Amino acid sequence: MKKNKILEEILNEVDKHPEIMSRREALKYLTMSPLAASVLASATVGTTAVSASSNVKGKIVIVGGGLAGMSTAALINNTISNADITVIEPDQYSVSYQPGQTLVAAGVWDKEDIMYKRDDFVPSGVKLIKGSVTAFDPDNNKVTVDGKEEVSYDQLIVAAGLMLNYGGIKGLEGVITSSGADNAVVRQKIGKNGTHSIYFRDGAVDTWKGIQELVAQAKAHKGPEKLQALYSMPATAIKCGGAPMKIMYLTHAHLAKAGVADKVELTFNTNGGALFGIPEYNAAIVKQFEKRGFKWNFAHNLVEIDTAAKVATFDKFWKEKGEFDEALDEYVMVTKHEYKPYKYDFIHVTPPMKAPDEVAKSAIGSGQGWVPVEKETLQHVKYKNVWSLGDVAALPMGKTGGSARKEYRVLVENLVASMEGKTTLPSKFGGYTVCPLITGLGTVMLAEFDWSKKPTPSFPLDPTQERWIWWLLKVYALKPMTMYGMLAGKA
């Protein structure tokens, strides 16, 4: 048996951080831990051929060559013999392992640790068109690339990701970028003068610089008033809903490590009405916030920012009784607004997010935004030969890599069944989502849940507790699992 590629990469990651764990300690842990046994369950991931289980024919086009799209291409390639697969993705030399951007922003990883060459992970036999889909024509089973090349299909999979709509905040007008990418225009406003965001690659690098600057500022601070660090959560669905809190926890960890946590007040302003949508995890996070002295405000949406003056304005909103409706025998509830300015020394901006315009405004997106699919089968609600997964899919929750890992297997099984003419789709997605909520330098709360909105832990441990074992999973195991398991269609 060839050496397990995932194990090899985990040990390579360990070697980068000897201050946390030695290779010898890692090997001991990997031979004893049930978690490690699960991670390494397929000892030959990436080393053995997979026998295809179907010889169905048809041209399959995948829009998007990120994690969701390329993993789906790999699994189809493993499932259908002589599969005809085309992936359409803009020409990028390198892409990001996006879950690692938080670790870059915390100074745990370097930028190079999250970059990989997209072309190295194109499955054998899969055609790659380096371009952007600019139009969808599902009634005629074709898409247009870069406004000129038409590509026909029998089955279409939309995995186009999402866009970071910084421009939805006044003061950042015109700033829109794809998640994970570098963007010079964004950096004109974000990444300096205390204004930061981890949602694009260079933004994560700049955030680490910003945290270091905040620590230095706190060490030099002599006044009675505390320095102010703000963290925002927008009114839209976002990828990795825990990320805005992760960077808050990590900022605090560095302040505490430097002995200056008492000099900075950290405040989390969220558009929502809870810190986390799952009650059990929300209760745990409230206790964690209280223990660390964090402040938080609900129904606060960031609507404007003056990066020069370092003032962020939030829309604080609430409901009040309006006129009485005699027909309904009840009062009309009216939304009230108060626009509150907050001075800051450091702010982490989580931008509003949206589907790419080419998707949202097309028949595929029904003119509404995210691609509407049956939430269990991932089949389009109108076009039965169109499927969607990942960030762009209109699903109730779970814009995370962990969700995509469950989704792509469901989608491929249903896609093949549909191509074989089966009237009943065999696989159902239950809404599984996992959020490794980093709570400090060395601790993670592994929040797993599904559409039941109840914890669904994979391991027999209290999922609401912060644990070192989950830090090891996050820092060492998940990236190799993703790169050499999921992107090979085998994990």
Give a brief description.
By secondary structure, this protein is of the alpha/beta class.
Secondary-structure topology with pairs:
Blueprint: H1 5-16, H2 23-32, H3 34-39, E1 59-63, H4 67-79, E2 84-89, E3 95-96, H5 101-105, E4 115-116, E5 127-130, E6 133-137, E7 142-145, E8 149-152, E9 155-158, E10 163-164, E11 177-178, E12 195-196, H6 201-220, E13 227-233, H7 243-257, E14 264-270, H8 279-292, E15 295-297, E16 300-306, E17 311-325, E18 330-343, E19 346-348, E20 353-354, H9 357-360, E21 371-372, E22 386-388, E23 393-394, H10 401-419, E24 433-440, E25 443-449, H11 468-484
Parallel strand pairs: 1-2, 1-9, 2-5, 9-22, 12-19, 13-14, 13-19, 14-15, 21-23
Antiparallel strand pairs: 3-4, 6-7, 7-8, 10-11, 10-20, 16-17, 17-18, 24-25
Helix pairs in contact: 1-11, 4-10
Number of strands: 25
Q: Calculate the terminal CA-CA distance, rounded to whole Å.
A: 18 Å
Q: Which range best describes the helical content: under 10%, 10-25%, 25-40%, 40-55%, 55-70% or over 70%?
A: 25-40%
Shape: globular
**Strand residues, percent:** 15-25%
Neighbour order of strands in the largest sheet: 5-2-1-9-22
| Sheet having the most strands | 5 strands, parallel
User: Uncertain spans, ≥5 residues at pLDDT below 50?
Assistant: 42-50
Give the overall average pLDDT: 89
